[in-house]
Every structure is written in structure tokens, then in C-alpha cells.
Amino acid sequence: MGIVMNIGQAADASGVSAKMIRHYESIGLVPQADRRDSGYRDYDPEDVHRLSFVRRARDLGFPLERIRVLLGLWGDPTRSSAEVKALALTHIEELEEKARHLQEMADVLRGLADACDGDGRPHCPIIEGLEAGSVPASSPSGERLISRSSSTSLPSRRSPSPGRR
Amino acid sequence: MGIVMNIGQAADASGVSAKMIRHYESIGLVPQADRRDSGYRDYDPEDVHRLSFVRRARDLGFPLERIRVLLGLWGDPTRSSAEVKALALTHIEELEEKARHLQEMADVLRGLADACDGDGRPHCPIIEGLEAGSVPASSPSGERLISRSSSTSLPSRRSPSPGRR
DNA sequence: TGTGCGCCTTCCCATCATGGGAAGGTCAAC
DNA sequence: GTTGACCTTCCCATGATGGGAAGGCGCACA
């Protein structure tokens, strides 16, 4: 009795690759699958359901450790929806933070690209923007810098200020 | 002659960690630094300038391999700004693509979270959303599924359709 | 001159999620 | 029985960064 599938079928049905199913099992994200005499893993619909849950959580960008918590909440009939919601809101914050960061980088770069003619000449505000303060070629003071003549005489080398880095 | 600094000073001046400077050198992103007799690396303002360039490119999200190209264009007086601009625009596309993806995930999750009471009760649309199609418990047909009685007799197991995955 | 401390060196390991591939065993259809 | 798709485990790779160990160097201060 029981409907059973091997890892490839479970992979197809859940959308999680066989490779990843084995991995999730190895890190304890999902329970160890039953084995046939041959050593093949067996999956039933409940297993596949759990794997699908994991896949959807990943599709929403949840890191595996948070999915571990989600799985725990999922299987806990006494959980409060507040716990789940808090987890989700935290994750939403992180997603939007990352999205903002990426968009900000794109915007800065767009600003440079807009100023670039994009023609055959070498002049390019994008490169100049990356250079940003131009070469501090001949440094004004010896602050953090030392001078040396060829390879002889190594004079004082660094300000002795402690805890520099 | 020559203003020279060790790797820690170059790290401070460029904003690239000493660890990363060594790494960039090891993968050939930046040229090998000169060495003192002691084995310490030496950096001059040009080196620091290049490292700063790399750091700004990284701050704009460029992957190292693209930075490698950027460095090549930077040092090439015959480059056309069109080349640089094309590289930048490609990168902007990728950044915005990723930002959209993240924001999309956040929006989906926000929709679920908005539907969640977030109270002390277990009912939670977020969890349900992750379950998505509910358990395909007793599968309708034997498509991809097999039945088994306990652990005896393993009948036909899989449709022989080739190139399944 | 010695000592101490902070810096340097190399090398290995960890992250995070995923995949590639090798070597070898299993299964089922023809 | 052979074939070919599937399964098993194990190791390595990605991309960018960091942690940390073990040991050497540099320099200021006592």
C-alpha cells in the first residue's frame, strides 16, 4: 500500500532537483527518506508536499535556515500566525533592502552612462566615475606614506598610532 | 624616490581589504606587487589608484570578471567610450533584473502577509500560500506513481518515456 | 640590546545554494 | 541478456569574502 516514487520522480513532482533533495536530506532540512532494499530512496506524497513547500519558500527567496523554521511552524498545530507573519515580514524587509541596494547601484551607473557619449572616442565619464578622485599621484604629506630611494635605507615607515586596523 | 606603502596601508587607502588585495593578485585581476627583501608587498600610488578603481567597480556591483575587462579598457588609450558604455548598460540591465526579481518576491510575500491576521491563532495564509496546491495526497492516476504493498512485489515503476529530465 | 606588539607572509577552511561529473550499482523493457 | 536510464556516494566548482593558524618581519621604546 502507499504511493511511492523514486527521487527523480519526486524531483519532477516537487520541482526540487534530485541533487538538492539529497542535499536537503543531508543537512537535515527534510527527514531522511525511506530506502528500498536496493538503497534507492522512496518518496510518498507527503514527502513531495514538503519538498514543494521548500521549493516555494526558496522561490520567495527564503534562505534555507529560515525555511527550516518555516517547516517547523508548518508542522506545529499550536503555532500562532503571528510567528509566521513576523518571519515573513523580516524576510520582506531583507528582500526590499537588497532590491533597493541593487537599484541604487543601477541608478548611479545609469547616471554615469547617461553622461557617456558612447561613440568611438576614448573619453568616457563612466571610467572617470570609477576613478573617482583621480590619482593622488605625488602625495602631499608623508601621512601613511614613506619614501624610499631605490632599495636602500628604509627610514621610518608608519605612524605608530596603535590599533590602526 | 617613490612613495611606497605596505599592504595594510594600501588597504586603508584603497578601501580594499588586505585579504582581498592578495586575492585579486592571486587571480591576476591586479598585477603582482613588488616585494621588499623581506617578502612584504610594496604598493605605490598607481597601485592604490587601481585598487580604488576596483573597489568602486565592486561597489557598483560589477563582478570581478567584468572588472577585469573594465581595467583593460581603463588602461587602453585606444578604447572607444562605446565599449565601456555597452559594458555598463549590460550591467545595469542585470542589476535591474535582479532588483525586480527581489521586489517581486517581496510583493508576493507581502500579499500573503497582508492576508494574515498575525494573531495567536494557528490559521495562516502565509503557510497556506507556501503549500500552494495542497497535498496531491491520493494521486488520481498512476502517472509517475506506483503503488506498493508494504515491501513486497515491486511492479511496473515508471513510464518508459525517454529523456525524462 | 632586547623585548614586545603589530604587521606581514602563506595556507586551509567556511560561507550559500547549486550543479557537474566520476565510478559503480539497479531496474525494467526489449 | 543487453541496453540505457536511473540510482548511489563522493569530490570539486562556483563568487566574493572572511576567519584563523603558524611563523617571520619591523620598529619603537625601555
From TrEMBL, chains A, B:
CDD domains: HTH_CueR. It is found in: Cytoplasm. One of its GO terms (molecular function) is DNA binding. Residues 138-165 have a biased composition (Low complexity). Residues 4-73 form the HTH merR-type domain. GO terms for biological process: positive regulation of DNA-templated transcription. Residues 127-165 are annotated as: Disordered. Keywords: Coiled coil, Cytoplasm, DNA-binding, Transcription, Transcription regulation. Residues 85-112 form a coiled coil. GO terms for cellular component: cytoplasm. InterPro entries: CueR (IPR011789), DNA-bd_dom_put_sf (IPR009061), MerR-type_HTH_dom (IPR000551), MerR_fam (IPR047057), Tscrpt_reg_MerR_DNA-bd (IPR015358). This is Cu(I)-responsive transcriptional regulator. It comes from Methylobacterium gossipiicola. The lineage of its organism: Bacteria, Pseudomonadati, Pseudomonadota, Alphaproteobacteria, Hyphomicrobiales.
